[in-house]
Amino acid sequence: MMQLRQEKGGPAYHLHHAQDEWFYVMKGEVMVKIGEETMHLKAGDSAFAPRKTPHAFAKISDEEVQMLILFQPAGSMEDFFHQMAKFGKGIPPNQEQMKALWRAHGMEIVGPPLKF
After folding, report:
1. How far apart are CA 80 and CA 29, in angstroms?
2. Regions of the chain short of the pLDDT cut 70
3. Model pTM score
């Protein structure tokens, strides 16, 4: 999946029960936390989050971030992103709705988004 981010920030600290996740930064700068380790990644850098390991990322640069994110196995991630897109950029769903959506797709929110 290609991730393009204009605004700073990122998803909640979470884990995947049955999927590994790999991040490859193509442009910009992101902070990635995997378990207890926090890294600052720039273009050409990558990081790996094994399944069942809490992780999150956040855009921290002023420029656009382009990042390739791979899930292994892909599972239901495509459906997850389609469901998330239905919320649009308006009022976000309440926390219980969000947690239920993540659970239904094999993930669990374990903390807030990264602060930078």
Report:
1. 25
2. 90-93
3. 0.89
Distance of alpha carbon 35 from alpha carbon 13, whole angstroms = 10
- Mean per-residue pLDDT of the chain: 93
pLDDT at residue 88, rounded to an integer:
76
Cα gap 22→87, rounded to integer Å = 25
Six token digits for residue 63: 């420029």
β-strand partners of 14? 55, 109
CB 69 within 8 Å of CB 11? no
Residue position matching structure tokens 């976000």: 92
Residue 102's closest CA among 74, 81, 88, 86? 81
E-state strands within 1-116: 2-5, 12-16, 20-27, 29-34, 37-42, 46-49, 55-59, 65-72, 107-113
